[in-house]
């Protein structure tokens, strides 16, 4: 202690503008980022923590609340009109957690926990008593779960007026400051859940965030996630498991949609330390918080609840030890997960870099077929990532061996199959490895033999009655020909993943009706609502679920909106009639046909009925207008609302009714009801002015509705009249919430009538008039939303330079310095106007390293657009088949996007269409990179669509062809690489080989479907295969002349009609081609093997180079072919005396002779055509046609160089083999 010196600093603050605020007789501080230094001397850094002794002298009638324990309060000796409060904080904390509030508070001690105090201004005492009744439950639950006492000696909750607080909540050590807007009395219902969760989260932050702090800025996600994890435990125990699971499901969906760039990487320096704390503000702060909680819940699922609880207890215990360690890092938590959680080291080593250190979530597209013979489910899965490739790979673990664009995620996802005999879990889906997977799941239930039933008279072939609403034949087969009721992927939400599962409609109905999990019900409703047409069975299932009082009320509300979405003139407004009938059965008096007086004792039923008018208001006719019945229904509810005798307030009920008026669309036939609706709204405004509602909710909803109506009727309503109507609500005497809502409404009107520049000018004027910090931040947030709308709709609306200068002046001024939320929103506004993302997370200026504005673009992401920038779009082929609406990833995708259809069909099962929309650029710039695997180049264009579909109507085998550029000779390849480097304008090592995956079906006779590829028109082959048969076809040795250079072409494919599977293709060190030949014994071959369709490289000038054949691969083919022949000879030894075998052998010989004759004719034709091409040099792009018989197991050493192949069906007769019609487009080589 000899070297310790005491430094005493006397200071005073003459004019405090930030950090500490004075409002009349109220003084309070806020914990804005790096603003503690503005009101007391300190080292305002996260790394500096110390204890505090605090003394505050205030007027006698005021109460001073600060961090730490209140040691005593004493009157001042020389002047008894002042009182001194003395606090001590023994736990070292950073300066940002020091808080002070001085006001004439009413103090409410907690009756259950002695050292908890609740304080508010005198006018809110009754609300405070009702609000904090539950609080001791959360406090005791946290202590019980963590097995430790509250770390601070006291805890105080302070509630200030909303216009005083900077944000809805502000934390300090042992103190939490809230807006009094969250308080509610015993008559309010809707605010209860949100307030309880907000107070519980603030208490959890005292444990993880204030008491235990992050070691580095990159560890903030961990403490934020642990606080959210504790809050979820509170929700589960005191608000119900359904509420907890539903909230987690919705949060996970939001994370998957937003986690597409490096801004959401939790431990990246670029997304944490370099953002200076702004990553916790706004929507990105919410997304990061939800993602943190989801990751910790995933760890809890992996190690078990008790092991995870022990980790948290150990973290808290060491923070309270004699030598306390109150910081926590991601590295330490990884160590705890291995030692205490008993997780395997390889799993943990991959888990944290992939989930925490990088961005992106797995996006799984699934479809299945049922194999009746094997009683097995065959599940097809395509795994993608929500993040763009560069963003996901830039922050991966440097120690990881796999550097591909998609390395997968550790762990196995469970598939839950609901069968007739019960429920079975199958943890069979790996989240790493191949992106395409085909899984086999054995069923446990078996179907009894069905007796043939003679169809009834007057019934249709599918068994449905003429008079009833028929269920499609596919639904009947799915329910009668398989023991499957429904299937779910990841039923326990063990992974943060976006899952698009496709199953028949009847299975979705089964899931909705029979599965008791709220997540399963919500998924089923979303899938049924997305159907192009909703049958009677679907509408009936949704109506039954809505009427089920035992179902969770939030999911019932989703069913109500799905019913409203299904209502149309085609089905006689069945959804609308069901909604109105349901509401009248609960709320109407059947004798007089009018609504009963309000009775809100049943809270779940109250929430459902409150949402019905809003759902009814969304119903639209064919002309996009609301039907007359919907408008009359809403008007009747507004007119006859009666709350007499109801102990609960109807303010939220009325606000929902008024907002439903704003959602209506008025046409010429129903505009007569508008005057009656406006009179009701005006009456409510006058009533709310005399007797203000809770937080001005009713007036706010009326203002919003009036603006919506004015915008919809902009042609007949003058802007000035609406301005005059809303302008009085901006008066300084009105309550804060109404004043801000009026300003936002006027900004909306200005934006829609006069453009974004006028709206921003109005925003700047209102910002200077607004004196509250929170009001300024809300106005800026609204202006930012308007800029985002403008940025996506009307890019021609320019911003004047004077407006930009004014915005920059605000950003640099003292007003924004005093309010970090305003400062951040102003920065985001300027970023959006510049076409950037609304975050400090920088997007590289080099276009070759990014995909433009990944976070604000509404168009789907695309890998090829990033890898091949600034090239000409590829023209579409002449004939592109029309895709089903369900299979189109995005109707607004770029026109240059090529569609590659990959159809996996099983002979006894469903049809699964996997559509990949790829944004190809110039084909001349695509090079063959031997280090890139084909499966890593699946684009992200299918982000928002269910592209895996099931269809039971067609049962057929599959021929799957993969297209991959072959290796060129060393000299030609070197020239190609140089050409590609010049065309792309960047180094060749950063390029990725472009590949395409094509499935070509082998359908029934006389059926053909066109499939579009990048530069091919490939139509389906007419072939009819027997069960379990195998087909091998090759087209080879057809020579073409091109300026004296002769080269061969080959198309080879192999199909097995029993099953289809995508095999992993190992890289061959001797060849740049990634895809290898797959010769597997025909007796053991279960899946269709994928053969190589080699395509020559394109020169930059449009020519094509000669593709060379690897001699190593040729020797491999010969060896495997010899083994195949040897095995066949052994198999045929026992059949030499069989007359049937001899007859088949004779027919086979005759067939081969015919094939040889046809091949000879074709070779003569090819020679003749080559001579013609020599003569006609002025026609370099001449087209040759060749009709070739399929020759079983015939291979050729030549490779195909061309990329315009067309196969056309031709009728086959007798035992003749199927035929390919090949259309080959050849180009001459440029001699230069």
From TrEMBL:
Q: Give every Transcription initiation factor TFIID subunit 2 TPR repeats domain span.
A: 507-836
Localization (cell): Nucleus
Cite the record's Basic and acidic residues compositional bias ranges: 941-956, 983-992, 1131-1144, 1152-1179
Compositional bias per record (Basic residues), positions renumbered to this chain: 1220-1232
Q: Where is the composition biased (Polar residues)?
A: 993-1015, 1197-1206
Where do the record's region annotations for Disordered lie? 452-473, 923-1015, 1057-1232
What does the UniProt keyword field contain? Nucleus, Transcription, Transcription regulation
**A GO cellular-component term linked to this record:** transcription factor TFIID complex
One GO MF annotation is: zinc ion binding
Provide one Gene Ontology biological process annotation: transcription by RNA polymerase II
Transcription initiation factor TFIID subunit 2 Ig-like domain residues are 359-504
User: What Pfam families is this protein classified in?
Assistant: Peptidase_M1, TAF2_3rd, TPR_TAF2_C
Where the record annotates domain Peptidase M1 membrane alanine aminopeptidase, the positions are 134-317
Its recorded name reads: Transcription initiation factor TFIID subunit 2
Source organism of the structure: Manihot esculenta
């Amino acid at each position: 202690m000899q070297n310790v010196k005491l430094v005493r600093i006397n200071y005073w603050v003459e004019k405090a503008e930030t950090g500490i605020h004075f409002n009349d007789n109220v003084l309070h501080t806020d914990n804005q980022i790096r603003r503690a230094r503005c009101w007391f001397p300190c080292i305002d850094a996260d790394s500096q923590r110390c204890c505090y002794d605090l003394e505050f002298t205030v007027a006698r009638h005021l109460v001073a609340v600060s961090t730490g324990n209140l040691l005593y309060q004493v009157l001042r000796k020389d002047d008894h009109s002042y009182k001194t409060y003395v606090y001590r904080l023994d736990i070292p904390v950073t300066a940002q957690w020091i808080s002070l509030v001085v006001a004439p508070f009413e103090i409410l001690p907690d009756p259950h926990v002695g050292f908890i105090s609740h304080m508010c201004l005198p006018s809110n005492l009754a609300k405070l008593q009702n609000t904090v009744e539950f609080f001791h439950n959360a406090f005791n639950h946290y202590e019980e779960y963590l097995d430790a006492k509250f770390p601070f000696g006291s805890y105080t909750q302070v509630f200030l007026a909303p216009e005083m607080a900077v944000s809805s909540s502000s934390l300090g050590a042992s103190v939490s400051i809230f807006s009094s807007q969250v308080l509610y009395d015993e008559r309010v219902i809707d605010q209860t859940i949100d307030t309880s969760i907000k107070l519980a989260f603030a208490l959890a932050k005292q444990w993880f965030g204030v008491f235990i702090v992050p070691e580095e800025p990159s560890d903030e996600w961990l403490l934020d996630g642990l606080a959210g994890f504790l809050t979820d435990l509170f929700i589960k125990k005191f608000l119900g498991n359904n509420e907890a699971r539903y909230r987690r499901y919705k949060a996970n969906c939001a994370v998957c949609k937003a986690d597409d760039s490096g801004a959401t990487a939790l431990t990246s320096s670029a997304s944490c330390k370099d953002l200076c704390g702004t990553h916790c503000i706004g929507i990105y702060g919410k997304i990061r918080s939800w993602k943190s909680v989801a990751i910790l819940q995933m760890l809890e699922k992996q190690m078990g609840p008790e092991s995870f609880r022990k980790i948290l207890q150990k973290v808290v215990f060491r923070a309270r030890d004699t030598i306390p360690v109150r910081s926590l890092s991601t590295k330490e938590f990884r160590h705890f997960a291995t030692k205490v959680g008993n997780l395997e080291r390889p799993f943990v080593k991959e888990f944290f870099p992939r989930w925490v250190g990088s961005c992106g979530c797995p996006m799984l597209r699934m479809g299945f077929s049922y194999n009746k013979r094997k009683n097995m489910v065959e599940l097809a899965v395509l795994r993608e990532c929500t993040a763009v490739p560069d963003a996901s790979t830039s922050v991966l673990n440097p120690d990881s061996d796999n550097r591909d664009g998609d390395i997968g995620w550790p762990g196995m996802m469970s598939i839950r199959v609901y069968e007739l005999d019960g429920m079975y879990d199958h943890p069979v889906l790996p989240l790493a490895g191949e992106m395409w997977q085909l899984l086999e799941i054995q069923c446990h239930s078996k179907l009894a033999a069905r007796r043939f039933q003679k169809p009834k008279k007057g019934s249709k072939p599918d068994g449905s009655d003429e008079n009833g609403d028929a269920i499609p034949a596919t639904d009947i087969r799915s329910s009668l020909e398989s023991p499957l009721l429904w299937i779910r992927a990841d039923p326990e939400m063990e992974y943060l993943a976006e899952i698009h599962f496709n199953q028949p409609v009847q299975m979705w109905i089964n899931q909705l009706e029979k599965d008791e999990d709220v997540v399963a019900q919500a998924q089923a409703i979303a899938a049924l609502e997305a159907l192009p047409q909703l049958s009677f069975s679907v509408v009936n299932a949704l109506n039954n679920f809505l009427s089920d009082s035992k179902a969770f009320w939030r999911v019932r509300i989703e069913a109500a909106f799905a019913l409203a979405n299904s209502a149309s003139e085609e089905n006689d407004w069945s959804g609308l009639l069901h909604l109105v009938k349901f509401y009248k059965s609960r709320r109407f008096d059947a004798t007089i046909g009018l609504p009963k007086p309000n009775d809100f004792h049943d809270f779940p039923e109250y929430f459902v009925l409150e949402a019905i008018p809003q759902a009814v208001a969304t119903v639209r006719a064919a002309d996009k207008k609301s039907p007359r019945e919907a408008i009359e229904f809403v008007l009747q509810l507004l007119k006859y609302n009666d709350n007499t005798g109801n102990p609960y307030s109807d303010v939220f009920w009325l606000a929902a009714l008024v907002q439903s008026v704003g959602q209506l669309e008025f046409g010429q036939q129903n505009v007569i009801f508008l005057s009656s609706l406006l009179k009701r709204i005006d009456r409510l405004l006058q009533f709310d002015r005399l007797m203000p509602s809770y937080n001005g909710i009713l007036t706010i909803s009326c203002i919003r509705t009036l603006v919506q109506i004015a915008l919809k009727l902009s042609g007949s309503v003058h802007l000035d009249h609406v301005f005059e109507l809303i302008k009085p609500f901006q008066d300084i005497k009105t309550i804060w919430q109404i004043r801000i809502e009026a300003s936002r409404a006027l900004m909306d009107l200005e934006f829609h009538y006069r453009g974004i520049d006028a709206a921003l000018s109005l925003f700047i004027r209102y910002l200077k008039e607004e004196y509250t910090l929170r009001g300024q931040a809300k106005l800026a947030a609204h202006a930012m939303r308007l800029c985002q709308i403008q940025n996506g709709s009307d890019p021609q609306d320019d911003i004047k330079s004077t407006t930009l200068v004014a915005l920059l002046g605000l950003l640099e001024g003292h007003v924004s310095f005093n309010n970090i939320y305003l400062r951040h929103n102003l920065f985001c506004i300027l970023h959006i106007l510049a076409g950037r993302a609304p975050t400090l997370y920088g997007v590289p200026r080099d276009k070759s390293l990014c995909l433009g504005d990944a976070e604000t673009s509404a168009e789907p992401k695309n890998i090829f657009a990033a890898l091949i920038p600034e090239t000409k779009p590829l023209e579409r082929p002449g004939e592109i088949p029309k895709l089903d609406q369900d299979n189109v990833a995005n109707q607004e995708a770029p026109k240059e996007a090529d569609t590659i259809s990959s159809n996996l069909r099983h002979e006894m099962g469903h049809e699964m269409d996997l559509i990949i929309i790829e944004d190809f650029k110039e084909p001349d710039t695509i090079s063959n990179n031997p280090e890139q695997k084909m499966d890593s180049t699946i684009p992200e264009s299918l982000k928002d669509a269910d592209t895996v579909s099931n269809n039971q109507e067609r049962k057929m085998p599959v021929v799957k062809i993969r297209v991959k550029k072959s290796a060129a000779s060393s000299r030609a390849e070197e020239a190609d690489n140089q050409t590609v480097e010049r065309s792309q304008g960047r180094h060749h090592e950063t390029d990725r080989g472009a590949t395409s995956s094509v499935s070509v079906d082998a359908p029934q006779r006389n059926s053909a479907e066109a499939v579009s590829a990048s530069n091919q028109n490939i139509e389906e082959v007419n072939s009819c295969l027997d069960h379990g048969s195998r087909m091998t076809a090759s087209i080879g040795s057809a020579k073409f002349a091109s300026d004296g250079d002769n080269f061969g072409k080959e198309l080879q494919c192999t199909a097995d009609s029993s099953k289809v599977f995508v095999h992993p293709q190992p890289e061959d060190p001797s060849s740049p081609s990634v895809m290898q030949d797959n010769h597997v014994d025909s007796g053991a071959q279960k899946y269709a093997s994928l053969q190589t369709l080699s395509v020559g490289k394109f020169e930059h000038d449009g020519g094509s180079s000669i593709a060379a054949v690897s001699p190593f691969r040729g020797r491999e083919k010969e060896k495997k072919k010899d083994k195949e022949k040897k095995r066949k000879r052994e198999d045929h030894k026992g059949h030499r005396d069989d007359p049937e075998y001899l007859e088949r052998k004779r027919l086979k010989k005759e067939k081969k002779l015919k094939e040889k004759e046809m091949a000879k004719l074709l070779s003569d034709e090819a020679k003749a055509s080559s001579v013609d091409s020599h003569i006609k040099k002025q026609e370099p792009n001449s087209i040759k046609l060749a009709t070739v018989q399929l020759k079983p197991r015939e291979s050729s050493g030549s490779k195909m160089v061309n990329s315009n192949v067309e196969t056309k069906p031709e009728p086959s007769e007798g035992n003749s083999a199927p035929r390919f019609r090949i259309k080959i487009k050849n180009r001459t080589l440029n001699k230069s």
